[in-house]
Model the fold of this input.
Amino acid sequence: MSDTFDVQFTFRGEAVGKMRNEVRVVSTAPTSGGTYDIATDEGPVHGGDATAPTPLHYFTAALTGCLMTQIRAFARRLGVQVDGLVVDGTTQWLGHLTAPAPYWTEPVRFELVVHIDSPSSTDDVVALVEAAKKGCFVEQTLAKGVTVGHTVRHGDAELKLEESAA
Amino acid sequence: MSDTFDVQFTFRGEAVGKMRNEVRVVSTAPTSGGTYDIATDEGPVHGGDATAPTPLHYFTAALTGCLMTQIRAFARRLGVQVDGLVVDGTTQWLGHLTAPAPYWTEPVRFELVVHIDSPSSTDDVVALVEAAKKGCFVEQTLAKGVTVGHTVRHGDAELKLEESAA
Done:
């Protein structure tokens, strides 16, 4: 038995409309977890038609949902009963205006408040949240960083952009 | 005139059903970019009902959509004409089985292939993608990491978990 497992998605996004993107995301490992079409858009202030959430709405929902999913998935294994679970908080970034590109960006801080209704001890509830943090793919990606490789295809040209290691 | 601007979201996620989470995400800065209700779920293999995409489907769409949005948003400012834009690729993680918690996780590598249809020069197209990378909130979060603060509320107890700096 292997002590690791792969989790992998493939995707294709197409720009349509003014700022709308239609992204098909396919779960390819460890099991086929489904194919979903997820559209993003921007509000009129940013040149879009507000036909869908922005990428950062989805990012924020992914962070929240990932931790919440792992809290419930790990609860049984850790012997903690979860009768109710609500998570609220904030995600925050800073944009720096520059020229000629409009701006560059950096994250500031993300804050999660986890409300758990449980007859288990507070120690056990905290241990569950700590385990879920380590098991949350999104949080571990933020904590550890990851290399994002970019290849640009333009006409017959294909260029691999320089990578900054995570 | 300030040379920075804030980008901020607040959210509340509620666990419902078996593994479904219903997350309300509110854009609060720099302008009210809208409120969206985004649900996540898991497939039956992971104890869910597959009523919605998983958090990692959304995460993958957010990464893709963020870069695509900035490519189009920055194109005019950089004088690059974008007649067509398709991005495809993969996101990849590894899970490590452990006990008693089921597993811990780490990102492996994300790969984006950016197809741009443009009468502009390849140099200008590449410069646009480089600028969009630096302007993409999601990519910069992955490159720089970010501290995620956790507070657990259980009954009358409120505990701030130890932070690992980004």
The longest helix of chain A spans residues 55-75. The first strand of chain A starts at residue 4 and ends at 16.
